[in-house]
Amino acid sequence: MQALLNDIMQEVQPLIGQGQVATYIPALAKVNPNQFGIAVCDTSGKVTTAGDATTEFSIQSISKVFNLVLAVTYYGESLWQRVGCEPSGLPFNSLVQLEYENGIPRNPFINAGALAIADMNQSRLIAPHVAMRDLVRKLSGNEGLLANPDVANSEFEHRARNAAMAYLMKAYGNFHNDVEEVLHNYFYNCALEMSCVDLARASQFLANRGHCTITKEPVLTHDQTRQVNALLATSGLYDEAGSFAFKVGLPGKSGVGGGIIAVVPGRFSLCVWSPALNRMGNSQAGVAALESLTRRINWSVY
Fold first, then answer.
1. Catalytic: 238?
2. Could you tell me if 273 and 82 are in contact, meaning their C-beta atoms sit under 8 angstroms apart?
3. pLDDT at 90 over 80
4. Ordered structural domains, the chain, with CATH
């Protein structure tokens, strides 16, 4: 595995720094784009790394995975009455589909869906962002994980479009809590800072039928894990989900901080990070690294 990761890093070296960092969040605009890290965690819990795998970064939309895990734990199958399980085909922050489909988001990984999930967690938890932080601390084995308040506050200041989605869902009866309070928790989830090692370990249960080797406890049932992985495969990479499925063929979730988690069911989970993004908002070098990985191991869920 070490030789494999070293070869992949060498192969994508020309792409590192190519693209643009996320500029609409001032704190992310300052990140050095010339960084790359990758970490793999197998189903026994062994971690292999290359590059800047221990550097912490803003996980952004990768947080939607753990937010969903919390909601599934509390709501089970009833969750899918409020959020769909279909690919969107539109930008992740679109309001058009939400209006057309009477306030029911297409899936939990577009912004409207993630906000609906955050609203559901708000109904069950006193401090949802603390609950999610504690969950990833437990799954990763890193008790020092924290959200960056500067990033969270910066996102809150630019909340207009997300607030519009929440209020539109509220108009259709699919949002039950105070919009501003839910948005605060939502942005603190996005502002959580983790490394590739942390995220590879925290997502390992998705490769292990819902069981976390690190905590030695089940996180989700086998069936729930299958459902989450299916959604990651169809809807985890913004507008690039179809291309990602075609080229990479793994369940995955990206964030505009430059991170991507991916799952090889039954074998390992991994996280790759490089801050410079392609035009779809996904890590340019990260997507290339995952494409190289699946080509080299000749493995795909398809």
1. yes
2. no
3. no
4. 2-297 (3.40.710.10)
